[in-house]
Design goal:
Layout lengths: L6 H8 L27 E4 L2 E8 L4 E8 L2 H8 L9 E4 L13
Parallel strand pairs: 1-4
Antiparallel strand pairs: 2-3
């Protein structure tokens, strides 16, 4: 799920799965605060974010990947269990960001 989905693709995110199948939604941080998807029971959080930042070398703005903030971790955590019991799993590669990851 990302900001460039068309309306039809976005509708699929919110549509119930046929035959009670498990639905997996990959999302950018657009899903962090702006939406609630009925039935989300498990959020797997990479602890990463891609955001526009100033690159002093090229003197331009560029998308950079980095670690998310503690408040974003809490927002992502809140996506699970909004309409049913849920859980969250946090993952991060770098031990320096481990202090951001808690359950």
């Amino acid at each position: 799920m990302h900001g460039k989905l068309n309306e039809e693709e976005m509708d699929l995110v919110f549509k119930a799965s046929p035959n009670r199948e498990r639905k997996i939604i990959f999302a950018t941080n657009v899903a962090e605060t702006s939406i609630t998807i009925d039935g989300i029971r498990h959020v797997i959080d990479s602890g990463m974010v891609k955001e526009m930042m100033w690159d002093p070398q090229s003197k331009t703005r560029a998308l950079k990947v980095g670690y998310t903030t503690q408040s974003s971790v809490m927002q992502r955590r809140g996506r699970a269990g909004r309409t049913a019991i849920g859980k969250v799993s946090n993952y991060c590669k770098n031990s320096t960001s481990f202090h951001l990851v808690f359950m």
